[in-house]
Amino acid sequence: MTQEQETLSAAFSTPPKRPRRLSAPSPALLLAILALAASGGLWLYQQQANMVVQAQVGRQLANYAQKAADASAREQALTERLRAMEREIALLAGKQAEAQGQQATLTALYDALTRSETQRVLAELEQTLSFASQQLQLAGNVSAALVGLETVQDKLAQLDRPELIPVRKAVARDIEKLKSQPYLDVVGISAKLDTLVAGIDKLPLAVDGYRHPPEPVDASAERHWFKRLVREAWNDLKQLVRIREMDKPEAMLLTPEQSFFLRENVKLRLLDARTALLLRNDGAFRADLHAARDYLANYFDAAAAQTRSTEASLKELSEESLAIPLPSLAESLAAVRGARTEATGVRP
């Protein structure tokens, strides 16, 4: 080997290693190591925390997913229930519409029946009021008219229709008018006249008052036949010729037949007076009573108690006044007829 080769090999050969001497670490290195260790610890802590958070988030997501599934199931159930309710509501709506149609039909029928009933009752009430008005105006019978008005009032109360309130008010006003009316006892006066008519046949005539009562009979003379015969003969002789003083000779000339017709004439006068009473004809009533009193004064025995009682009754009756103005029922009749016209004109 040449020198050049030795030089080259020496140049390329590795120098021998020298033993190193350990030196103390520098503070910067220590700080770097500490920082690296702290960073690694922090990274590990963050990783662990992230894993905990991820676990919690996973559990919450699973819980939320379960709740969402439950909510979806409940929503599905509610949806089905809602659909069922909608079907039931639709069915109920159909039934309600059908019930409303039936109710409308029933209402129309009820209105028609009620209106017919109202018309029928109003027709009856009009007839009742017409009869009461006739009794009041023709016969002056306030009691019968008042009974008719009260009957009409009761029927209107039973009917209880709002449109008939004016009719009820009119009837109530007419009732108040009749109740405040001066009272004439037509029935009582008619009863008195009937009693007088029945007693005419029992009144003694004037000719009866001139007849002498039979003389009292002596009991001792009645037992002796001769004395009795003489007494009877004497009585017969006294009946042949009798002189009497008479103030009313025409009353003594009445035959039995004329007496009968006289009593019948007095009865007719009293019956005419009763008819005049029912018709409220004051003039005819007084005239008939005056004629009956004249018959009593001229042809009947004024001294008899029955004649005096009849004369007193006729005088008392002649003092009765029949000229009492009576109200009319025109307001109630007009109200009933107006309500009947309205009920007839309105169609259901």
Automatic annotation (TrEMBL):
Signal peptide: none annotated. InterPro entries: HemX. Residues 61-135 form a coiled coil. Keywords: Coiled coil, Membrane, Transmembrane, Transmembrane helix. Residues 1-12 have a biased composition (Polar residues). It holds the Pfam family HemX. Residues 1-21 are annotated as: Disordered. The chain crosses the membrane at residues 27-45. PANTHER family: PROTEIN HEMX. This is Heme biosynthesis operon protein HemX.
